[in-house]
Amino acid sequence: MLKININNITETEKVGYILGKLLTGGEVICMTGDLGAGKTTMTQSIAKGLDVDDYVTSPTFTIINEYQGRCPLYHFDVYRINDVDEMYDLGYEEYFYSDGVSIIEWADIIKEILPKERLNIEINKKDNIDNREIIIYGNGEKYINIIKLLSEKI
Q: What pTM does this model have?
């Protein structure tokens, strides 16, 4: 597990960018945190690290946006789904078990269908408007290694 105290948005962007550079495809990243905690900012920065040129927006109403970079990026925002059956209708397994990177905002809403092996990112607001605590933990050797590399680079 890696805990990072963030003092401003630039530091959040740096963590996301470095993480994006470490990803090779086939990863699932599950994000949790309050509204406005920085999940989309983190996703945008991971996308930059994956060499995605497009502007990344939260797919609040479409549930998923797809981007091309070094590998495909599948950005899910499941805040508005009412039932995990909606994820089955989207064919989520094709994304989660592909050679792309799947990032799921509000992942706790669909926890029963998440892969066992994954990278979890929890973003918590602190006292100051810009301060955050980012907690990153992995399930599976691949993700534990990513966290180790990330901790060496930040």
A: 0.95
